[in-house]
Specification:
The chain has about 325 residues and is α/β, with parallel strands linked by helices. It has 14 helices and 11 strands. The strands form 2 sheets. It has an 8-stranded parallel beta sheet. It has a 3-stranded antiparallel beta sheet with strand order 7-11-10, with helices on one face.
């Protein structure tokens, strides 16, 4: 289906506040995946008209600063940085995005209130990830420009509410744009999110298999081969639940949690596990974070093709239903 007038008609009809707010062409965010969402992926998504996001995770600030500078060399379009507020480097990261002229910050694992004044003074749009209505309201009161309502279907760290339930409640509760996340990987998910009241979507797992994603090829193949019941949530007993694809590591977590293993033992089991998967391609003892939607991800594509395919499909579905 050819583009009409250089833009998808669905975007014109929606007149998304998110696109106007961030000066992006399409209402698609790329999820911030720790150790995965780097300059290569973020710049490709931004170049394709979405919002690429560099994941801060627990990395030292200079590592992320280098990714920000690489991204600025690869694209002149808007991109964001995700700051994990529990990171020991959060304060440094908060200052770095100001120093580097980053225009969008998404946050997770905490409240960004103490940074708001500094970020706003530097013209940064702040968009926290929220797992509940109460937290969404709190973020808006603190000055958030929009919120990402992320359901438990997503990969990585998750909350309890599903996307289908969470998004409309957050939409009803706040007056800023809501970005839907969790379980979205094709046009059907995009259309459903729009129908729930979201004005954009955030996509993580599908971008794992993008050509521009630098994750180990074993990781990509694990996602491409996933079935509907191949994810599991571990770590609920630690207060930090994580959704991953099932493997020997996840089974060990499940066994230990079942017998009430101490938090310290569980945390030790996870040390370095993400790097094992992302960098070294260890699909048995690495932490292979991916969402429940992985079963619908069945091919490698460019970021541009992913974005356009999702929006074309969403446009067709919404047109068929009036």
């Amino acid at each position: 289906m050819p583009l009409q007038g250089g833009r998808l008609e669905i975007v014109k009809r929606m007149k998304s506040r998110v696109c106007d707010l961030l000066n992006i062409e399409y209402p698609i965010f790329q999820g911030a995946m720790a150790r995965i969402s780097d300059a290569s992926l973020a710049s490709a998504v931004s170049e394709a008209g979405g919002l690429g996001i560099i994941a801060g995770g627990t990395a030292p600030v200079e590592v992320i600063r280098a990714e920000v500078r690489k991204t600025k060399e690869l694209t002149k379009k808007p991109f964001g940085v995700n700051i994990m507020l529990l990171s020991e480097f959060a304060d440094d990261m908060a200052k770095m995005v100001c120093e580097e002229g980053v225009k969008v910050v998404t946050t997770g694992a905490g409240a960004p209130g103490k940074y708001m004044e500094m970020w706003k003074s530097h013209g940064i749009k702040v968009i926290p990830v929220v797992p509940s209505v109460a937290i969404a309201k709190r973020m808006v009161r603190s000055g958030a420009d929009a919120v990402i309502a992320e359901g438990t279907e997503s990969g990585g760290h998750v909350g309890e509410l599903t996307t289908m339930v969470l998004v409309p409640q957050v939409v009803d509760a706040v007056d800023v744009p809501v970005i839907a996340a969790g379980g979205i990987a094709d046009g059907r998910g995009v259309a459903a999110a729009f129908m729930l009241g979201a004005e954009a979507v955030q996509v993580g797992t599908r971008f794992l298999t993008a050509y521009e994603c630098t994750v180990h090829q074993n990781y990509k193949q694990k996602v491409l081969g996933a079935k509907d019941i191949d994810t599991v949530v571990t770590g609920r007993s630690t207060g930090h639940p994580v959704r991953t694809l099932k493997n020997k590591l996840s089974r060990k977590f499940v066994e230990l949690e079942a017998v009430g293993a101490p938090v310290q033992e569980l945390e030790q089991l996870g040390v370095g596990a993400l790097a094992k998967a992302v960098v070294h391609g260890d699909m048995e003892f690495g932490s292979v974070m991916a969402g429940q939607i992985a079963a619908l991800v069945n091919k490698e594509q460019s970021c541009k093709d992913i974005i356009l395919e999702m929006l074309h499909e969403a446009e067709q579905l919404m047109a068929q239903r009036g």
